[in-house]
Design a protein that fits this description.
The complex is a heterodimer of chains A (313) and B (309).
Chain A: H1 4-21, H2 35-62, H3 66-71, H4 84-91, H5 102-133, H6 139-149, H7 154-167, H8 174-199, H9 202-210, H10 215-226, H11 228-244, H12 247-252, H13 260-268, H14 277-298, H15 300-309
Helix pairs in contact in A: 2-14, 4-14, 5-8, 5-11, 5-13, 6-8, 8-11, 11-14, 11-15, 13-14
Chain B: H1 28-33, H2 35-55, H3 72-79, H4 81-112, H5 119-131, H6 134-144, H7 151-157, H8 174-199, H9 203-211, H10 216-227, H11 229-244, H12 248-253, H13 265-275, H14 279-306
Helix pairs in contact in B: 2-14, 3-14, 4-8, 4-11, 5-8, 6-8, 8-11, 9-10, 11-14, 13-14
The chains are: A mainly alpha (313), B mainly alpha (309).
């Protein structure tokens, strides 16, 4: 026991045992209805109600008929539930001359989101992999430019991209918008993947190198299968981000290729005709359903995604 | 994109050790794979930004053209009532949303950190608005704040006939109506970041403070918050860079109205670039936005990265 290290270990061990013997750990349990608990849970519940209110109002309004909305109170539950507004919002609501409802925008959004997510993640994961494992001279510089790019207001780059897209003949097409999403998704995703790949044990990479695997071999056979969780995080991040985008949609597409958010805004904020609030709220809710579903299904992974992707702003 | 499949055929990056035929071919695959990143960084981020800044000194109208007029666009910008309103709105929105989202976010995080039950449920509820787009957020709050059907109507029908709460159609306070919606959408994120920060604080700090008999609020204020400095700074940068981009929310909630009362810089840029076909003004306004971000970002980057090296 002369060695101080063993001594310290022994003391630590003893205290750990003592801790275990001392009974349940953590703070002393409190009475369920102490004043502190009432205030604490009261506040939390009040705040939670405030946060839930808009969702509730959306649901309730979208299930009412227009006469009931004109008479009643936006917070009261519907007396007569009708799904008419939902059907109308989906299939026959008008934007300009088109009267085929939100379904058009929905399918446009799907056709934008799916390839954008795939392409941006493919590019960014390879970038991150190259940055983490195959550093070349100057790579860091480009990476830093990329990260700074995440903070540059998009407005600064809007017009140059219009010119670029026009030059390659993609302005106004869905492909063009997919390209734009891939470009602007790159900074944060590259950061995400670079940090993840850098955290993997280096021996793995070295062993593969010794066995003769090359750049793509290691990527497809080792890195890809090992990093499924981070891919899921990236997918969540991108799907919600791209689905919710408005600015790029309104700048880089034409009315018949508008994504859902743009079309929704046009339906609700159109100045012509009688305002049908129930249809508007149904449309709003339908647009919000995709990210909400992802949010509630993914749970903790979503939080991880935004913690990593928060830089995006 | 198309180049991701070609490099497989090219020779492996030989010469990692030993003979080096040419440094250009060292690590060739990694370089080829990074072409999209390099192109994006150079052509879009650096090139695009520089392009816009250069053209902000020209008199471009419908199409960009290189006829330099010095600072004329900026003079016109700063004498435009609409731009001044946008800046004022952004300043009010920015300062208040920064203060309130930090305050609310931190308080909520501190409350959730009290080893409570159903923490996951509460957190899920507080964060869900963040999954929604600004368009959805704006439209919902437009409906709730609607004077004829929303909060004002409900309170009046309860008997308080003279109750006035109509932020979206009152020029002076319209930006607060937007702030309300913005806070609803964004505080969940701040809460999450703060909660992560609080969880990173050593339990022993709390024990020590308790042993010393320091009241809880004092521990938060004088010990925990100073320790969370990096988290606060990151959050600050995140919120600010989001504030400067404020656009969709205004478009959805008020469309910039009533009149131009809720105009913001990002919307000003869009209007001049794509509606009014006065590109020069749009470029000048967007360059001002860039400058704002740079003023915030450069000191932060200096602190963050300068210290480590």
């Amino acid at each position: 026991m002369s060695n101080p290290a063993t001594l310290a270990a022994a003391v630590a061990g003893a205290s750990a045992i003592a801790k275990d013997l001392a009974g349940p750990r953590g703070p002393k349990p409190r009475a369920a209805f102490s004043r502190r608990n009432i205030i604490l849970y009261g506040t939390l519940i009040m705040v939670a109600l405030y946060y839930l209110l808009p969702l509730y109002v959306m649901v309730v309004t979208s299930l009412k008929g227009m006469p009931e909305i004109r008479l009643g109170n936006i917070f009261s539950p519907p007396m007569e539930i009708t799904f008419e507004p939902w059907v109308k919002a989906w299939a026959t609501a008008c934007t300009g001359l088109n009267c085929d409802g939100l379904s058009r925008g929905f399918w446009n959004s799907v056709r934008i989101t799916v390839p954008s997510v795939f392409l941006s993640i493919a590019i960014a994961s390879v970038n991150g992999y190259a940055l983490a494992n195959w550093r070349f001279k100057g790579a860091e510089t480009f990476f830093i430019i990329l990260i700074f790019g995440a903070f540059i207001p998009y407005q600064v780059m809007l017009y140059p991209i219009v010119i670029l897209l026009r030059e390659i003949g993609l302005y106004g097409t869905l492909t063009g918008l997919v390209l734009v999403h891939s470009i602007f998704g790159m900074p944060i995703l590259t950061l995400l993947f670079r940090n993840y790949f850098a955290s993997l044990p280096e021996e793995l990479f070295k062993a593969a190198r010794v066995d003769g695997a090359g750049f793509w071999g290691i990527y497809f056979r080792i890195m890809l299968p090992m990093s499924l969780p981070i891919f899921v995080v990236a997918i969540i991040l991108q799907v919600t981000g791209i689905w919710n985008d408005f600015l790029f949609g309104v700048v880089y597409t034409r009315p018949d290729t508008y994504p859902m958010t743009v079309q929704l805004n046009n339906i609700v904020n159109s100045t012509q005709g009688v305002k049908e609030y129930n249809v508007n709220m149904a449309a709003t809710l339908i647009t919000g359903l995709v990210p909400l579903a992802i949010y509630f299904i993914s749970g903790k992974l979503f939080v991880r995604g935004i913690a990593a992707g928060a830089v995006k702003g | 994109m198309s180049d991701t499949s070609t490099p497989r055929r090219s020779p492996q990056g030989k010469g990692e050790h030993g003979r080096r035929p040419n440094t250009l071919f060292k690590n060739l695959n990694a370089k080829i794979a990074s072409i999209p990143m390099i192109l994006t960084a150079l052509c879009v981020f650096v090139g695009g930004t520089a392009w816009t800044v250069v053209y902000s000194f020209t008199d471009s109208k419908l199409l960009p053209r290189l006829r330099f007029v010095g600072l004329e666009q900026y003079e016109r910008l700063w004498s435009s009532q609409r731009w001044l309103v946008s800046i004022e709105n952004l300043a009010i929105y920015g300062v208040l949303s920064l203060v309130f989202s930090l305050l609310i976010g931190f308080v909520l995080a501190a409350l959730l950190d009290q080893k409570i039950r159903f923490e996951d449920t509460f957190r899920t509820i507080y964060l869900y608005p963040f999954a929604l787009s600004f368009i959805v957020t704006g439209l919902v709050w437009q409906w709730i704040l609607n004077p004829d059907f929303g909060v004002q109507h409900v309170v009046r029908s309860l008997g308080w006939e003279s109750f006035v709460f109509d932020p979206l159609y009152t020029k002076e306070i319209v930006i607060y109506g937007i702030l309300f919606a913005g806070l609803w959408q964004g505080t969940g994120l701040v809460m999450c970041l703060m909660l992560a920060g609080l969880r990173g604080i050593d339990e022993d700090i709390w024990k020590a403070a308790r042993v010393d008999g320091i009241p809880m609020w004092k521990t938060y204020l004088f010990i925990v918050i100073p320790m969370m400095r990096p988290v606060f700074i990151t959050t600050l940068v995140i919120i600010t860079s989001g504030i400067v981009k404020l656009y969709d929310l205004v478009v959805a909630q008020t469309g910039g109205g009533p009149g131009n009362a809720s105009e913001v810089p990002a919307k000003y840029v869009y209007e001049f670039m794509f509606r009014a076909q006065n590109l020069g003004q749009g470029f000048a306004a967007s360059t001002m936005m860039l400058l704002t971000v740079a003023i915030i970002l450069v000191p932060w980057a200096y602190l963050e990265f300068g210290r480590r090296r």
